[in-house]
Amino acid sequence: MKPDDLRRTLEFYRDIGVKTLYRQPRTGKTRQPEIAEPVEQPVVAEAPPAIQLPTLAPTGDTLPRILEDIGDCRRCRLHEGRNKLVFGVGNARAPLVFVGEGPGADEDAQGIPFVGRAGQLLTQMIEGTAKKEGIELLRADVYICNVVKCRPPGNRTPEPDEMEICGQFLYRQLLAIAPKAICALGGTAARALTGHKEGVTKMRGKWLDWRGIPLMVSYHPSYLLRPYNQDAKREAWEDLKKVLHFVYD
Ligand code: URA
Asked: Cα of 38 to ligand 1 centre, how many Å?
């Protein structure tokens, strides 16, 4: 990374309240693809179709009931490589839900979404930005989940049929929590929820809608971990401030 990029990256982390930086230990010269986080591309050549509307959620649906219905899921091929199913984490009555794409290696090992490098950045962004904006908020106060609950092999983008099958549970989670706002992290989650076909750069920063709930699209934290995305880092921070003030002011 060039010195100027490094400085801007460090300034960005400082601005969002990041105090500790972790370095991924490297075993060889090249990074192993199986431990790479999913990476969000800002522009997509061909957008996958939106998730089809699911059947109506049972009345009085709850997160434990949804988890029970998922069970030892074998509805799609993703279960084959699964270590742990990653349902979601956080406050079942959260006014704000973050939706990512799908578990990576760390999440698959622990059964908890966003605990790897991208997850640590997300946590620091949520807590650091909230603190800076005078909002008392911890990661545990929001709810965090993904479009698909099992890790796609090699962190590939989930296939449309996988998102459609698993999407019914995401929809039920969102309906059960009924947050004040949703933040879709990255283009895959954004397209799955909104049906829009654009890339994340076109969709981010504006209020969209998911069944009457305001939805903000922002960059996936994996994308922000790349060294050369200074504008995206600044924009992600602006998006998050907008969401936090809307929900918590
Ligand atoms: N990326 C995601 O989209 N979700 C996770 O849980 C972790 C990384």
From this structure: 7
Q: Which atom of ligand 1 is nearest to the CA of 185?
A: 3
Residues 150 and 74 in one domain: yes
> Quick check: is 57 in a domain?
no
Number of the ligand 1 atom closest to the C-alpha atom of 100: 3
Beta strands in 143-212 (DSSP E): 143-146, 181-185, 207-210
Q: pLDDT (tens digit, 9 = 90+) per residue, 162-188? A: 999 999 999 999 999 999 999 999 999
* Ligand 1 midpoint to CA 122 (Å): 10
Whether the model pTM is above 0.85: no
Instruction: Tally helices (H) and strands (E) across the chain.
Output: 9, 6
Ligand 1 test: best mutation among 35, 97, 110, 146, most atoms within 8 Å of CB? 146
Domains held by the chain: number: 2
Quote the ligand 1 centre to 171 CA distance (angstroms). Answer: 17
CATH number for 237? 3.40.470.10
Say which residue the tokens 């909002």 belong to.
135
